[in-house]
Amino acid sequence: MTKVKITLIKSTNSANQKHKATVAALGLHRIGQTVEQEATASILGMVQKVKHLVRCEEA
Fold first, then answer.
1. Which helix (H) or strand (E) holds 12?
2. Model confidence, pTM
3. Hey, which of 3, 9, 19, 35 would disulfide with 27, CB 3.0 to 4.6 Å?
């Protein structure tokens, strides 16, 4: 399975509660933090929901 690197680039302070929960479920807590996840359908769907807060690239 291919992996993706997800980086939090904007704050979640003004985001709605569902977006905050999605970012936390991806494993992100601080701006600039990067996590590496498997590129499953559920992960890619979560990234799509918060695409205005994160940067996603193939690892």
1. none
2. 0.93
3. 35
